[in-house]
Write a structure and sequence with these properties.
Oligomer: heterodimer
Helix content of chain B: 25-40%
CATH topology of chain A: Rossmann fold
CATH superfamily of chain A: Glycogen Phosphorylase B
Radius of gyration of chain A: 15 Å
Number of strands of chain B: 6
CATH architecture of chain A: 3-Layer(aba) Sandwich
Number of helices of chain A: 5
Strand content of chain B: 5-15%
CATH architecture of chain B: 3-Layer(aba) Sandwich
Order of helices and strands of chain A: EHEHEHEHEHEE
Chain lengths: ~160, ~160
C-alpha cells in the first residue's frame, strides 16, 4: 500500500435511524479515510449516486436467523475485496454480524450505539460488547469510562 | 412562520388536521408538507413534497418546526438551529409499521430544543408559547465533531490490534 493512500473504512448500518446516524458520523470522515458504506437498504444505493460507494447486503435481524448465513458470506466477501482497516457501525444486526466476523481478522471495530438507546445499550450493542475494539454510547450516563465510552453525540 | 412536515415515507393526516385546526384560529402563517395524505389543509399553505433545498429553507425560516417523530427531521432542525415539536405516529391508528416513534419521544424529549407531544392538547400547549421554545446551545454541532474526531484518532492509533 502506498504511503499517501487513505485507510479504508467500512461503515455499516440498517436503514432508517441507524443509517441517518451512521452518515452523520461518517460523512465528515470522508476526507480522512476511504469510506465504503454497507447497508441492507437498497433504496440508498441509488439515492447516493456516484459520490459515495454504497454496497447492499441481505437484510437480517435477530428474528430472521436463516438470513444471517447469506449475510455473513456477503460480509466476508466484502472484507476480502475491500480489506478495511476499520469498521464502524451504529447497528443493528448486520453491523453486529460484521463485528463478530471481524474479530478473527486484523480489522478494528468501532460500535456507536444508537442515540435512541437512552437507558441501556441496544440489544445488538450488548451482543458485540465483548468483541468490539471500541463501544461508544451517545448518552453519558451509559458510559463506564472503560469498555463503554461517551465522546459526544450526533445531536 | 411555522413549518409542518411529515416526511416522505407515509402520510400523517392526524398531525396535519391538528395543525390545520390550529391555523384556523391563529394569525400565523403555516406551511405544511403533507406527503400523500388524504386530508388536504384549508387554513395552511401546503405541498405534498418539497425539494431538499426548499425543505431546509423552510426549517431555517420557521419560528418552530412541527414534525412527525423522525430522526432525520430532528437532525435537520438542529442543523438549521430551529426548535422542533415532534408528534409520534401510532401503530394502532395505522400510521406506521410499529410503535417505535412512541418510544422515540422518550429520548427525543431529553434533547435540547426538542419538544414532544403525543396528543392534540400537548401540541396546542407547546404552540401556546412559541416564543419560549428554543435551542439553548447554539453551538450544538460540537458533540458530533468530538465524536467524529475521537473515532478518526482511534482508527489511526496503531497501538490496538
Amino acid at each position: 500500500m502506498s504511503k499517501n493512500k487513505k485507510p479504508k473504512v467500512l461503515a455499516i448500518a440498517s436503514p432508517g435511524g441507524h443509517w441517518i446516524q451512521l452518515n452523520k458520523i461518517c460523512n465528515p470522515l470522508e476526507d480522512r479515510f476511504d469510506l465504503t458504506y454497507v447497508t441492507p437498504g437498497s433504496e440508498y444505493a441509488s439515492a447516493v449516486k456516484n459520490s459515495r460507494k454504497v454496497l447492499n447486503v441481505t437484510d437480517a435481524s435477530a428474528d430472521s436467523k436463516l438470513k444471517l448465513i447469506p449475510l455473513a458470506f456477503q460480509l466476508l466477501w466484502i472484507f476480502i475485496k475491500e480489506r478495511p482497516t476499520a469498521i464502524i457501525s451504529t447497528g443493528a444486526a448486520p453491523g453486529a454480524i460484521a463485528f463478530l466476523l471481524a474479530k478473527f481478522l486484523p480489522i478494528k471495530t468501532i460500535w456507536v450505539d444508537s442515540i435512541a438507546n437512552v437507558s441501556q445499550i441496544s440489544r445488538s450493542g450488548r451482543m458485540v460488547m465483548k468483541h468490539a475494539d471500541k463501544v461508544i454510547t451517545q448518552w453519558e450516563p451509559l458510559s463506564d469510562g472503560e469498555k463503554v465510552v461517551y465522546k459526544g453525540s450526533i445531536l | 412562520m411555522i413549518f409542518v412536515a411529515v416526511g416522505t415515507q407515509f402520510s400523517f393526516n392526524r398531525l396535519i388536521e391538528y395543525m390545520d385546526d390550529w391555523a384556523a384560529e391563529h394569525d400565523e402563517s403555516v406551511i405544511a408538507q403533507i406527503s400523500d395524505g388524504s386530508y388536504t389543509p384549508k387554513n395552511m399553505e401546503w405541498e405534498r413534497f418539497l425539494n431538499g433545498e426548499q425543505y431546509n429553507k423552510n426549517i431555517k425560516e420557521a419560528s418552530v418546526f412541527v414534525s412527525h417523530a423522525g430522526m432525520g427531521n430532528i437532525i435537520s432542525a438542529r442543523e438549521q438551529q430551529t426548535p422542533i415539536i415532534v408528534m409520534n405516529r401510532q401503530f394502532k391508528l395505522g400510521e406506521h409499521r410499529n410503535d417505535h416513534q412512541a418510544d422515540g419521544l422518550k429520548w427525543m424529549g431529553k434533547l435540547d430544543g426538542v419538544y414532544t407531544a403525543s396528543t392534540q392538547e400537548e401540541l396546542n400547549q407547546h404552540l401556546s408559547h412559541i416564543e419560549k421554545l428554543q435551542l439553548k446551545n447554539t453551538n450544538s454541532t460540537v458533540g458530533n465533531q468530538n465524536l467524529t474526531d475521537y473515532i478518526a484518532d482511534f482508527i489511526n492509533d496503531d497501538l490496538t490490534k
